[in-house]
Specification:
single chain, 460 residues, alpha/beta, FAD/NAD(P)-binding domain, Enolase-like, domain 1, 3 domains, 5-stranded parallel β-sheet, 14 helices
Length: 460
Amino acid sequence: MAEYDLLIIGGGPGGYNAAERAAAGGMKVALFEERALGGVCLNEGCIPTKTLLNSAKIYESALHSSAFGVTVEKASLDHSVVVDRKDKVVKTLVSGVGAKMRGAGVKVVPATARILGKEPDGFAIEACGEKYTAAKLLICTGSEATVPPIPGLREAVESSLAVTNREILDIRQVPESLVVIGGGVIGLEMASYFSAAGASVTVIEMLDKIAGPTDREISEILKSNLEKKGIKFALGAAVTSVGGKAGDGYVEYKAKDKTERVPCSLVLVSTGRRARSVGIGLETLGVLTNRGAVVTDECGRTSVPGVWAAGDVNGKSMLAHTAYREGEAAVNSMLGIKDSVDYRAIPSVIYTKPEVACVGETVESAAKVGIKASEHKISLRYSGRYVAENEGGDGIAKIVVDDEHKTILGVHMIGTYASEIIYGAAAMVQRHDRVSDVRRLVFPHPTVCEVLREEMFAIN
């Protein structure tokens, strides 16, 4: 039996980052991962999708380069080469995570782990026939794609007519036509890539807008940009059935009391994710869950003393960077260091072209928590760099301000570099910066981010 200070189940962002932090804090750590280090983010999500999207952006830039005085003849996108590069990038980064674990002195166990319960020596886990114990346990088992009970969909998945975010990253041939069920982040990003790669793409979304909780005006600008690239949208539409076979299928949906059928070669199911908490032995400890998600406080503590959870498994904010921060807060809690996660200041990004990024409240969400706020909008065309680098760009930034205290409650953007700018806005939200505080900051020029400072002077 191997004894440790901390056992971590799950080697995704929350797990491996927490392992490194815990080891640095003097703890003896064992990390269990049944598939590959890096979890969904590194192997099936954040990194591979961004690799594909970067290739699409380069290709689209080549197609429209003449507007910038550059001639590119016979530009093409070779999807098979893109997938090969994606695999290379993932392999490199997974190896990097492994090297970090070795350097930190973390014991990595490449096996499925199951909780046996609480014993006199601590929490017990079994993996590959060996028993491990520790005084502390951190659950970082992540999430998995949901497959809704749509007639024919389960059969479509089994026949490979339909795929989830995991399988679509490995297909070697661009489908002639792709139907994406779900207009959230994953669905939009994959729609963007495969549209650029040559597929005819239709996105079917149950809500009356795309991009989930994204600001409605920004959502409309994004939709308009994607439509110009040939992507079709069916909004306020409920999928009623999926049928056919791989390469020759269809999706039926109902919208405004009218049923439509869209023929397709492939279906991407992108209707959300659910916490992976079943089958790991949580019931042996009596850890409280809510609809499968492990219930935690702002420090990651569960209902059972000595057990913490971080990342998608708690269902709070299914984003890799949230998992990083939650894992750190959990480890600090274990080490007696005061810490907690500020969920008000978690940024989110959609890596389409144009990019969408946001953090904090909208006017509507602020009102729901009793805060009177106002919205202040500025075109990104106030940025010299934006105009220099974009032909006919329609990007905007919105700043949400508390009317009473003039504090920054939220920032919402669509346009170039939004993903790289939003961390600064998140810092403003987390620090409770006032408009006057941001006016005194020096922003580099020429940059796109300086429109945020520009707008501060228009706020009374």
